[in-house]
From TrEMBL:
Upper lineage: Eukaryota, Metazoa, Chordata, Craniata, Vertebrata
Any one GO BP annotation for this protein: ribosomal large subunit biogenesis
Species of origin: Neogobius melanostomus
Biased composition (Acidic residues): 343-363
Bias type Basic residues, positions: 389-400
Protein name: WD repeat domain 74
Lineage top rank: taxon: Eukaryota
Pfam families: WD40
Biased composition (Basic and acidic residues): 330-342, 364-373
Length: 400
């Protein structure tokens, strides 16, 4: 699979762009909404899935199934906003600001830091955090009592108004300690921990809408950001953004249920996949999405449903052969009865037609009789009138 995505419906989705195939690998409910994803190791053979109920599940990309499930917090402590593997250990971060480090087989956190916001790694023991009204901080997990770096408040505006903080996403610049962040106030900041100022060494403003995600391309010289209005062909907020580790490609997903892959060179849309669910997070594999990979042998949910239906048909055929024959005989008898009824209906209709024709003939005869009577009356009337005229003429002659 080229891209892995987590959905609001609790589904882990794998997309193979080369084969134009999308597969669902779990069937959880909305209470198991997928909020964070990360690789379980350098080989990309495992995907760690952080759910809204505080469960972290391990998915094997080789077996195509979930292998391990462990609880890393309660649902009331806030959803996961960050997740990362630290060798055999696991670090989680919640929306309420709790950063915890868990041993491989332990159910209790060995390290807990109240930091807030997202979490991004810089090395095996260094992470960056930030959130709403919580400026950027860099922590050493081996000494979590105090942050290694804490960003200073931004300078007030020219009206002496305080500028609020709301870090939405961050990333460490490659081969550097510098950190780039994006905020809900459409700002992009670059911090240098070695600088005594502790304020951004570079600041840029993008658009007018809150920024939601950022990612660094492979060249390390540019920053890709996304906001609540999409502006990458999306019709809704972009919730996740990630550049390919080595190719000039960038993948994005969000509320419009589409996975989009764009080219960073010409900014054209390369691939677009509709995935039916609102998407929260994604992982971009290091493989080339344009080269076809061997298919992953997994049992999809649709195949399981097909097996259930096949089993139901098999039981019916095994136990109901005679029942089917009886049903067929009943159907035949019903067909015969229907045919006889149809014949009776046809005969009745013919009788009705004959009666209607006889009635019409009788009416025609009556009309003919009436016409003949009228003709006879007219002739008799004319004869009487002619006789009366002759009598009148004779009388006149006699008088003369």
């Amino acid at each position: 699979m080229d891209v892995w995505l987590g959905a609001e419906t609790g589904l882990l989705k794998g997309v193979s762009v080369s084969r134009k195939q999308a597969v669902n690998f779990s069937s959880s409910g909305r209470e198991q909404e997928v909020r964070a994803l990360c690789w379980g190791g350098a080989g990309e053979t495992e995907v760690l899935v952080g759910q809204a109920d505080g469960i972290v599940r391990t998915f094997s990309t080789e077996k195509g199934a979930f292998t391990i499930s462990r609880r890393c917090g309660e649902a009331g402590e806030g959803c996961f906003s960050g997740l990362l593997a630290l060798g055999p250990a696991l670090a989680t971060c919640t929306e309420k600001g709790a950063v915890r480090v868990w041993k491989e087989d332990g159910d209790e956190a060995v390290t807990e830091v109240r930091a807030g916001g997202h979490v991004k790694p810089s090395g095996p023991h260094r992470v960056a955090t930030g959130g709403k009204e919580n400026p950027l901080k860099i922590w050493d997990l081996e000494n979590p009592d105090k942050p290694v770096f804490s960003a200073k408040n931004l300078r007030d505006t020219y009206l002496d108004l305080r500028q609020p903080h709301w870090v939405r996403d961050m990333a460490f610049l490659p081969e550097s300690d510098k950190v780039v962040t994006c905020t809900s106030y459409h700002q992009v900041h670059i911090f240098d921990p070695s600088s005594p100022r502790r304020r951004p060494v570079l600041e840029a403003v993008f658009g007018e809408y809150p920024l939601t995600a950022l990612s660094l391309p492979a060249d390390g010289l540019t920053v890709a950001v996304a906001n609540t209005q999409g502006q990458m062909g999306a019709t809704g907020s972009v919730r996740a953004l990630q550049c390919h580790p080595s190719l000039p490609l960038i993948a994005s997903c969000g509320l419009d249920r589409f996975l989009r892959i764009h080219s960073l060179q010409d900014r054209k849309l390369q691939h677009k996949v509709y995935l039916k669910s609102r998407l929260n997070c994604l992982l971009f594999s290091s493989s080339d999405p344009n080269t076809e990979a061997p298919p992953l042998k997994v049992k999809e949910e649709e195949e399981e449903e097909d097996e259930v239906w096949d089993a139901m048909e098999y039981v019916h055929e095994r136990g109901g052969v005679h029942e089917e024959e009886e049903v067929n005989e009943e159907d035949r008898s019903v067909d015969k009865e229907d045919r006889s009824v149809d014949k009776e209906d046809e005969s009745v209709q013919e009788d009705e037609v004959q009666e209607d024709e006889e009635d019409e003939v009788q009416e025609e005869d009556r009309s003919v009789d009436k016409e003949e009577v009228q003709d006879v009356a007219v002739k008799t009337k004319r004869k009487t009138e002619a006789k009366d005229q002759k009598k009148r003429k004779k009388r006149k002659k006699g008088q003369d």
